[in-house]
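Appendix B. Raw example, untouched.
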Amino acid sequence: MNESALDGDDDYEESKPNLSPQIQPKTKKLFILNQNEIVLAELFRRPYSKQFLGFCLQRFEVGVWSSARGYNIDGALKCAMGNHKEKLLFVWVGLIPMVNAEKPLYMKELQKVWNLYDSIYSRSNTLMIDDKPYRALYNPAHLSIFTKSYDINDEEDNLFDPNGELCKYLEGVYKAEDVPRHIQHNPFGLPPITPSHPDWKYYKKVQNIGPSASVLWSFLGHSAEVIVTRSTHAYCYISSCA
């Protein structure tokens, strides 16, 4: 059964992690969530989302990279996260649309996040989860996992079950020394886009165009990306050179 995002926003508990000191990392790895279609669909949270978010916040620094429009993000965050949205490292609103492709594809370029947190996060300690494998085309390999979008009519959806496969997988990522090496040897979910994909010719062309030929998502008439960080709790506008 799905969860209404309007019921019990703030009532979930975070169980204490049962983790030995020797596996406690000095700096938490960065886990980037796609809020829309992964956590939230319409006004419903994915089943077990409260427990799942608590699990993630205990083990990772969690950021949200959302395709929601900037003026909708606060309401969407409240629905998805409740008061725990203040624990997020950042919320990034805006995707990179390709302008020279045959059809628009909206990308998430991790280098932009790494530039913002220089020397703290990199390809060795970052993991992104999304429902669209093509959004990772501009990123190094083995830094993303992909899962199906949340269908509110699927009453058997248990992706976020704290005893399910995703949480077990993330526990492995949490303990891993190197994120891409772990993902490479332990694939999860939907396959990434590789040369074996039936539409690889098209996606390869998109890769070759590269982010330098793209423009930023238009937000209220401005070419900008919008980010709110935990340290400021304020919106900043990041230029394409950020």
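End of appendix B.
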